[in-house]
Amino acid sequence: MSQREDWGAFGVTVAYGRKLALDEVTLEVPAGQVAAVVGGDGAGKTTLLRCLTGAVRPRSGRIVAPSRKEIGFMPAATGVWRDLTVAQNMEFVASAHRIRGKEFRQRRDLLLEAAGLAHLLNRQAGHLSGGMLHKLAFSCAMLHRPRMLVLDEPSTGVDPVSRIDLWRLISQTAVEGTAVALATTYLDEAERCATVLVLDDGRALQSGTPDQVINGVPGTITVVRRPPDPALAWRRGRIFHAWHPGPVRPGEEQVSPDMEDAVVAAALHARVAGSGNGSAPESGHDEEAHQ
Ligand SMILES: Nc1ncnc2c1ncn2[C@@H]1O[C@H](COP(=O)(O)OP(=O)(O)OP(=O)(O)O)[C@@H](O)[C@H]1O
């Protein structure tokens, strides 16, 4: 077992056949912090998390992580058994970790109390709301007091109130010293993490603290009512934001970007740079793409 506590994936490359899913990607996951991985569909988020858990072996690069039994993992599909009750789900996971008797009951009660599920011990998991299901999955992943917790889109599809509850649990876990790595598509969530890694098609576009990622936006983001080039614009409420690779031009209303702007601009920059001609990317982001 490694004694280091600055876990992470360092310069990791993963290929599935000819598909390069990760291209020399680094994600540091220090104890006591939440490290977020963001990116669109197929960006490589799950692959990177599964490298940390040992389920995917990189072609090259280095994984520094605790032993598998010291890692808690919550898959995107929650991993909860819907035909079992809340209590049975916890028992099943506990038995895999050889946690029994009073120790188990105390841990179970503590976690379910914190998750607001203590009164639902005998409810079949399939009859829980989406938010409750995710909180049960979180509790199962935490049962054995992991040193590193890996959460794959823990709040996707969860209602806003349950999202707040889940985030309280996640933050508390980090405060207590656990290293937390999570994938999320909610950029407001990423903004409250200690560090953010922006992935796009297997490549790291940006990484650092949320401020570093936001301030690292290449080019210029402006407010527009009608996008001059829909492929380089995204909707923000009633208006659009647009990006171009150069410095601000006369007459443009420059935006002070947030995480959403930063992530979209980084992806557009990568595509424009990849196309080599400075024009709009072929795949295009239509005006509804980033609502
Ligand atoms: N077992 C696999 N075999 C072949 N290709 C795979 C496999 N798993 C993932 N991929 C491909 O690798 C790339 C990265 O997938 P990954 O699931 O890591 O992305 P992601 O960011 O988690 O996206 P999503 O949220 O859509 O799952 C995608 O192009 C995906 O199609």
TrEMBL record:
Boundaries of every ABC transporter domain copy: 2-226
InterPro entries xrefs: AAA+_ATPase, ABC_transporter-like_ATP-bd, P-loop_NTPase
Keyword Metal-binding: no
SMART domains xrefs: AAA
ATP-binding keyword on record: yes
SUPFAM superfamilies: P-loop containing nucleoside triphosphate hydrolases (SSF52540)
Disordered, as annotated region: 272-291
Keywords recorded for this protein, A-Z: ATP-binding, Nucleotide-binding
UniProt protein name: ABC transporter domain-containing protein
Species: Actinomadura meridiana
